[in-house]
Design brief:
Elements (H helix, E strand, L loop, with lengths): L2 H15 L5 E6 L4 H16 L3 E6 L4 H13 L6 E5 L5 H5 L7 H6 L2 H4 L4 H4 L2 E2 L2 E2 L1 E3 L7 E5 H7 L7 H13 L3 E4 L4 H16 L1 H8 L4 H4 L2 H16 L8 H9 L3 E5 L4 H7 L8 E5 L7 E2 L3 E4 L6 H15 L1 H11 L15 H12 L2 E2 L8 H15 L5 H13 L2
Parallel strand pairs: 1-2, 1-3, 8-9, 11-13
Antiparallel strand pairs: 3-12, 4-5, 6-12, 7-9, 7-10
Helix pairs in contact: 2-15, 2-17, 10-11, 10-13, 10-19, 13-20, 19-20
């Protein structure tokens, strides 16, 4: 049965029985064109089930939205559900007893055997209890390229970061920006994170981020990462945009040759009618080391003093992980599903690359799962200072190692 038929049937049942019909405010920071199209799919499914999604979009990035979300929850004005990234962002809220325990929902819907990789559910689990519903897998380690920029120059489209850097002089001479980069702090931090695994390689990445090996962090492999970041800093001169999707639009409109951005950029290309493999090229792991981190988004559900709303929260949590929601949402978002038993035959070339990497096991945990929020913020602040100045890469490297050493 087609999804639309299922939704119509569900709507008819709800209309006939009057079941549910509970309003639930959902806060998130998905406001770009592609993001809005994706979140609308979740809202449609929830509404069709008989409840009502009250959209609480907060403009800006997660760094802007999270403090607002946390302030509302701790200040006694909780929403029904809220987006956070996988990892430790909601840990203190859970430990304070402010988040709904979803273990019964997870067990009833067999999340343990459905959610893949298992680290996604592990990131929701605290002291053996489950507190969030993963919605997607987002990986930031992608290089997005405008095919037309290279076609107009008579150059082959680069197949990796080194070729991209080598092409930059010709791109600049043609009046184009080699690397699009917005001025939001997390964007430069994301680019640095993508370079870690691409340039240093997975073994060195694991040694630093998982084993906390500071000798490797201070060594030659990461010196090369900081040099690559310095190269990228020079290539990004002239971007002159703020938001990530504005930087993506520079690639879509062929004003810039490329962008380092997460797979959510696919949503913007899709809204613009661009075709993967024809109009643009995507290189996971910057074309150097094709590994993806299994970060992404999950929904947490603040405790409410309302039994009816609590039941609606649990219905929404179950729906988010359902096959129908996983297909509808992730096809629009450009992210990967958190379960492997869904039909994604409609996926484009870039999404298929991600699915192949996921199936092959070429994945790694997200940095959000491995470092405390304080450490992550210090690294982000360093990256902002580095990308906005002429700081020597060796100096930035030394300061970075010092931050990690004091984690």
């Amino acid at each position: 049965m087609k999804l639309t038929t299922k939704l119509l049937a569900a709507s008819a049942i709800v209309s006939a029985t009057g079941a549910f019909a509970t309003d639930l405010e959902v806060t998130h920071w998905w406001t770009s064109g592609g993001e809005a199209a994706a979140v609308a799919e979740l809202a449609k499914l929830f509404d069709a089930s008989g409840d009502h999604w009250v959209d609480g979009a907060i403009a800006g990035s997660g760094g802007t939205a999270r403090p607002i979300m946390i302030s509302r929850i701790t200040g006694g004005d909780p929403m029904g559900a809220t987006q956070f990234n996988h990892g430790q962002q909601a840990l203190e809220l859970v430990e304070a007893g402010l988040m709904l325990d979803l273990t019964d929902v997870a067990e009833a819907n067999d999340w343990k055997n459905k959610i893949f990789p298992s680290t996604l559910l592990d990131a929701c689990t605290i002291d053996g209890r489950i507190y969030c519903a993963p919605v997607n897998i987002h990986s930031p380690e992608w290089l997005w390229l405008s095919n037309k920029v290279y076609e107009d120059l008579g150059l082959p489209v680069p197949t990796n970061w080194n070729e991209f850097v080598a092409s930059a002089e010709a791109v600049r001479a043609a009046g184009k920006v080699p690397l699009a980069l917005g001025n939001q702090p997390w964007q430069s931090n994301l680019a640095f994170g993508a370079m870690q695994v691409a340039v240093a390689g997975l073994d060195n990445w694991k040694a630093v981020n998982m084993d906390k090996n500071m000798e490797v962090a201070a060594g030659d492999a990461y010196a090369a990462v900081f040099q690559a970041a310095a190269d990228a800093r020079g290539l990004a001169v002239g971007s002159n945009v703020q938001d990530w999707n504005q930087a993506t639009n520079l690639v879509i409109t062929d004003q810039a040759a490329g962008q380092i951005m997460g797979d959510w950029a696919q949503g913007e290309f899709a809204v613009a009618g661009e075709v993967a493999g024809t109009d643009y090229t995507c290189l996971p792991g910057l074309g150097l080391n094709a590994y993806l981190s299994t970060g992404g988004d999950a929904f947490y559900f603040p405790k409410l003093e309302d039994a009816e709303k609590e039941e609606a929260q649990k219905r929404l949590a179950a729906m988010i992980v359902s096959p129908e929601a996983q297909v509808a949402f992730n096809l629009k978002k450009g992210s990967l599903p958190i379960r492997g038993d869904v039909d994604l035959s409609a996926a484009n070339d870039c999404m298929k690359k991600g699915l192949e990497l996921l199936a092959s096991g070429n994945v790694m945990p997200s940095g959000d799962m491995l470092w405390t929020p304080d450490t992550q913020k210090q690294v982000e602040d360093l990256m902002v200072e580095f990308w906005m100045s002429d700081m020597d890469p060796a100096v930035a490297h030394e300061r970075w190692v010092d931050i990690l050493s004091n984690n």
